[in-house]
Amino acid sequence: MVSDAGERNRSNAKIGSYVMLRHSLDDIWIFLQQFFVPLLWCILDTGQEQVLVEAEPLYNFLFI
Length: 64
Prior knowledge:
Blueprint: H1 5-8, E1 12-13, E2 20-21, H2 24-62
Antiparallel strand pairs: 1-2
C-alpha cells in the first residue's frame, strides 16, 4: 500500500507539503485556452472594426 497521498491519487504532490497539484497538465491547458481564445477574439474583432471604419467614409460620400 502506498503511503503518499499524491501517489494514491495519481497526482503530483510534494512530500511534506500541504499543497497537492492534481492534473497539473490539464490546468496548464485550461490556462492556455483562457489566454489564447480572448486574444484571438480581440484580433478578429479589431479586424472587423477596421473594415467598418474604412467603409463609413464611403457610405457618407455616396449618400450626402
